[in-house]
Amino acid sequence: MGHACSKGGEVKPEPPLVAAGSGTAGGAATASSKPRPAEVIRDDPEEAWKWLMEGNRQYIEGQNTRGPRRTTTEVRDRLTRGQNPIATVLTCSDSRISPSLAFACGPGDLFVVRNAGNVLTDGAIASIEYGCAHAGSPILLILGHQSCGAVTAAVGHIVDKETGLPEHSCIPTILDKMRATIQPTIDSAPEDVDRTELIDMAVRQHARATLANVLKECAVVRKLVEEGHVRVYCGYYALGTGLVTVLDP
């Protein structure tokens, strides 16, 4: 069984699939008695975040001990009766990143909102509110990633004044929306900065700015954060290692 760090640095077992004392006679648990991990620690966003980070550690070390246990027929049957995700995640549609794998999660663990470039569209804002306020996740994570194609295109759109896209393409609508979040990075970057480094800087700034915009534009989520029900993070996913790094706001 994997372990997660608790307050004070001590190590304790990860949240169990079966609550202590639950189940039928003899200790056998029924499907309905197996709580989601979020039901165990959902009232403590700090512990919920540590649970996710423990999952990322397992993923990058190739020692996922909990993911397979979360895909049983009993778990799937229980999920037909509702969801209780441990985190709401806004991330990119890029096929090289899978939040559930990156955090060693299974069905029902994450409420994931995805589009090219993890852009804060109206639909994304509404989905984030649903994940936090209605599905009840105690964590909101905005997750950018290394070598993001959408950010690369947006940087080129701003710096080179071109996209290389065919006429009538719908993609510029995304690039235009990203301009406000990455323009400050481009404006403040040294003139001789390497393009790859500039893109990486823009990915990180885009995640930070997107999180700030969620709190600015969504009063419901902002209130949940102010009341301590939801904790917010922005992060950076490294494609080569799978490591999720927390970014300072």
Q: Explain this structure to me?
A:
The chain has 249 residues and is α/β, with parallel strands linked by helices. The chain has one domain (45-247): Carbonic anhydrase (Beta-carbonic Anhydrase, Chain A). Helices cover 42% and strands 14% of the residues. The chain has 9 helices and 7 strands, in the order E-E-H-H-H-E-H-E-H-E-H-H-H-H-E-E. It has a 5-stranded mixed β-sheet, sandwiched between helices. It has a two-stranded antiparallel sheet with strand order 1-2. A hairpin with a 6-residue loop joins strand 6 and strand 7 (244-247). Helix 6 crosses helix 7 and helix 7 (172-188) crosses helix 8 (195-217). It is globular, with a radius of gyration of 20 Å. The model is unreliable at 1-38 (pLDDT under 50). Reversible hydration of carbon dioxide. This is Carbonic anhydrase. Its cofactor is Zn(2+).
